[in-house]
Task: structure prediction
Amino acid sequence: MTEPGSDAWPPDPIGTARLVLRASEARDRAAFIELFASPEVGAHIGGARPRDVLERSVPEVPGRRWGFFVVELDGAMIGTITLDHRAAELADHLRPDAGETELGYLFLPEAWGFGYAAEACVAA
Result:
């Protein structure tokens, strides 16, 4: 993967057998709020966020940055994939002499258990 800013972002959508990875759009805002307000998701990311706070703070088009994909199934957002560069000085860096990319994902609970995360991570 190249450095942030060296590639045009967002890239063209990436399709898999069932999913589309694409840039976020205004139509995804409600799903972002649902994702971060979910107690099930919150259990893995330090706690769910209050819905009223999210309603006020989530931008009209959330997640517009390098390395960020919305995961779409049948025209609706079901999760996100992120690619981030890790600084060499961070703990648990596997190769301090080389850059590493960290892959992260979050999915709505109703999308759990279908292999969507694995499929989306391979595509990203």
